[in-house]
Design goal:
5-stranded antiparallel beta sheet; 3-stranded antiparallel beta sheet; globular; 2 domains; alpha+beta; 10 strands; about 290 residues; Phosphorylase Kinase, domain 1; Aminoglycoside 3'-phosphotransferase, Chain: A, domain 2
């Protein structure tokens, strides 16, 4: 008989007495549960390595520990291959509407800057490099080999990625989160937390900023405010164009991530609709970049 997720959670030796287990919504690369034990609450994440998405759970745990040490993320309570137990934070995940408000942007930008500045100081062991242009090329090979319905788009995607890589340099490198979806920010009423370090690794900060803006559909004015807050200065035309190139690359990667998930993921999620939405956003951003 195949063990259920609940069986796997119950089998951990860290618990004292009976457990209450409830699934948490969200999570499209893992399954998440709220566990109550001995008067305390924990988040349990079930998920193995996902080579097609360059996800290493060992790297995720190391990044999670470093982010906690930097004061950004909840504590890691326990880890073994396939299962991660985190301290529970009584907080609400943000929505895109939340993030787009000027007040929230002013709170989020220092958190992102702290990620880029502080997490690497606490990271231990081999660290990943998340290079979006390599990811795009690897995704294209996976989609070709897997007979994806999106194969006709791949030559164009690869050509665009090459153009964007040229346009986005020179590159500053920092330790980045690389998946700044709204739900990965938690607000406990006093402060913000940044969670889910599946894709964390060294990258250019412009990728995180572009991902934040594209994932949450910032207006041009909101993008300008974000960049000015992050760099604490006016935005030059050169920086703006490099940023726009990385934003396009972020949207291309998210689109191809979903295309790969269509043929490789067994999680119950509407990847086809997610692909269509991100493809729309990418095509719009690419046209704006070309016309700029």
């Amino acid at each position: 008989m195949t063990a259920t997720p609940e069986d796997r959670i119950h089998s951990l030796a860290i618990w004292r007495g009976p457990l209450e287990i409830a699934p948490l919504v969200g999570g499209i690369t893992n399954r998440n549960y709220l566990v109550t034990n001995d008067g305390q609450r924990f988040v349990v994440r079930l998920g193995s390595d996902i080579p097609v998405h360059h996800i290493s759970r060992t790297n995720e745990v190391a990044a999670s520990r470093a982010a906690h040490a930097a004061g950004l993320s909840p504590a890691v309570i326990y880890y073994e291959p396939g299962i991660l137990v985190l301290d529970y934070i009584d907080a609400r995940p943000l929505s895109a509407d939340d993030i787009r408000t000027p007040a929230m942007i002013s709170r989020i930008v220092p958190l992102i800057r702290s990620c880029h500045r502080d997490v690497a100081r606490h990271f231990r062991g081999p660290a990943a490099i998340f290079w979006v242009f390599h990811v795009v090329r690897d995704y294209a090979a996976l989609l070709e080999a897997g007979g994806s319905r999106h194969k006709p788009l791949l030559p164009s995607f690869l050509d665009i990625a090459e153009r964007l890589e040229c346009a986005a340099g020179p590159f500053e490198i920092a330790f980045c989160h690389n998946d700044l979806l709204a739900a990965n920010f938690l607000d406990d009423g006093k402060r913000l937390w940044l969670i889910d370090w599946d894709y964390a690794g060294f990258n250019t900060p412009l990728f995180d900023l572009g991902g934040l803006a594209s994932n949450n559909e910032f207006t041009e004015a909101e993008e300008e405010a974000m960049l000015e807050a992050y760099f604490e200065a006016g935005v030059s035309n050169d920086l703006r164009r490099r940023y726009q190139a990385m934003k396009c690359a972020s949207l291309l990667r998210e689109t191809m991530w979903s295309m790969v998930s269509e043929i490789h993921s067994d999680i119950d999620f509407d990847y086809s609709s997610y692909t269509a939405e991100n493809l729309r956003r990418f095509e719009s951003a690419w046209q704006s970049f070309r016309n700029s």
